[in-house]
Write a structure and sequence with these properties.
Helix content is 38%, strand content 20%. The chain has helices spanning 9-21, 24-30, 35-49, 65-86, 107-116, 131-139, 184-189, 204-210, 225-234, 243-248, 278-290, and strands at 54-57, 60-63, 97-101, 123-126, 145-149, 159-163, 167-173, 191-195, 217-222, 238-242, 252-254, 263-264, 266-271, 306-307. Strand 8, helix 8 and strand 9 (217-222) form a beta-alpha-beta unit. It has three domains: 4-86, Arc Repressor Mutant, subunit A; 93-165 and 265-307, D-Maltodextrin-Binding Protein, domain 2 (3-Layer(aba) Sandwich); 167-262, 3-Layer(aba) Sandwich (D-Maltodextrin-Binding Protein, domain 2). It is α/β, with parallel strands linked by helices.
């Protein structure tokens, strides 16, 4: 039997990080270690356990049967230790840093929700990584909470998501436009502002129009929804936006003159360990409520989340 006096607690943290990330490189990033240091920790773990624990694969590493059996016990032990440390006043983190990625127009509303929460003392940082990098930054610990389009989590171990209430696109307009277009032809001819974080690409509205051989008139493209709002108040341009975004920008709204509604499905993503850190879990609940989720959220939320690789 292994003598616990020989065990370095840091090795358990390394094991948990590798198991969750399925990659020595990503695990090193999460723990702010160099890759050689993480590889050395894995070597020591293998010597202690008498098992390879993780086998190299095309996408990173694959846990052995022994690693799978050990993982739940290691995670439970670490969480038990974290819970115990929370009871020590000196160990509590003052002004915990909360790094959130979401649309710029949602940031003031979400900040209000966070600051109105009891005992709120978060230090909030908003930023928007490129969409193709966002989930990876979340998995590597560079981001705490991501609010973005609903997408599969295949191949990203350790992430969880909560699908938000579906939104729908509307025609939004500001003070410079007297009235919205009432017909499809008028809608297609109406100069519009395209808001997109990408240099090019089509929105769900454009995709639906494209299936019918139709195209909107795009006058301006911008990455900022707040800039789009300022333009719409100065120029007679419209926007095709999700209703939630139009409301956050205080724009007037009208239904799109299309036969079928255009839906947008968003999700809130977190790294698995944050579901068990009290301050971040409280922040997550505040954000869900602000985004239209039910006010009462069960204390045990695991069944509401989709785990990466569960499908």
């Amino acid at each position: 039997m292994l003598d616990l006096r020989q065990l370095d607690l840091n090795l358990l943290l390394a094991f948990d990080a590798i198991y969750q990330q399925r990659s020595v490189t990503r695990a090193a990033d999460v723990m702010s270690l160099s890759q050689p240091a993480m590889s050395n920790a894995l070597r020591r773990l293998r010597e202690l356990c008498g098992d390879p624990l993780f086998i190299k694969s095309r996408l990173g590493v694959t846990p052995t049967l022994v690693a799978h059996r050990l993982a739940d016990y290691v995670r439970a032990a670490l969480e038990s230790l974290r819970d115990g440390l929370r009871m020590i006043p000196a160990a509590r983190q003052n002004n915990p840093l909360l790094r959130i990625s979401c649309l710029d127009c949602l940031q003031p509303m979400l900040l209000d929700a966070l600051l109105e929460a009891p005992h709120a003392d978060w230090q909030v940082r908003y930023f928007q990584p490129r969409r193709r990098d966002a989930l990876q930054e979340l998995a590597s610990g560079k981001l705490d909470i991501l609010i973005d389009i609903d997408q599969p989590l295949a191949g990203l171990s350790g992430l969880h998501k909560r699908t938000l209430a579906a939104d729908h696109y509307v025609f939004a307009y500001g003070a410079a436009l007297k009235e919205p277009p009432r017909t499809l032809q008028a809608y297609l001819q109406q100069p519009q502002i395209q808001v997109s974080s990408r240099r090019d690409g089509l929105s769900p509205v454009d995709l639906q129009l494209g299936l019918k051989g139709l195209r909107r008139t795009i006058a301006v493209t911008t990455q900022s929804t707040l800039a789009a709002k300022l333009i719409a108040d100065r120029q007679p341009f419209g926007l095709s936006l999700p209703s939630r975004v139009a409301s956050a920008l205080s724009l007037q709204q009208a239904p799109l003159p299309l036969e079928d509604a255009v839906e947008l499905k968003l999700a809130l993503y977190i790294e698995a360990r944050y579901r068990f850190e009290r301050s971040r879990e409280e922040a997550m609940h505040c954000l869900l409520n602000a985004l239209g989720e039910p006010q009462q959220i069960p204390a045990k939320t695991q069944h509401l989340w989709e785990r990466a690789g569960s499908r």
